[in-house]
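Tutorial handout. Part one gives the primary structure; part two gives the three-dimensional structure as tokens.
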Amino acid sequence: EGDGPVNALDIALRKDLGKFQREIEDLELADFKVRILNGGTSAITRVLIESTDATGARWWTVGVSENIIDASFQALMDAIVYKLMKNRELAGRIAAE
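Part two.
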């Protein structure tokens, strides 16, 4: 359990994904890193998120924006989408056996 804006955004995104909710129950935000790519008034923020699931898989997603919340949202959404696609790929392989 973390705290801070990235964790709060993660919790908010998971609140109600309808029929997809059960598919991401084992998705965990393992780590995140924030880096300011250039200083000054036009600073660009890069958020790198490491995610895991019950299968032991690990993947990383990136968000880039002038706003840390936007960058975090991009990276978190990509992590969720990747997990959903990974589940479908696994289901397809099992069905083919």
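Part three, for discussion. The chain has a mean pLDDT of 87. Residues 68-96 form the longest helix (29 residues).
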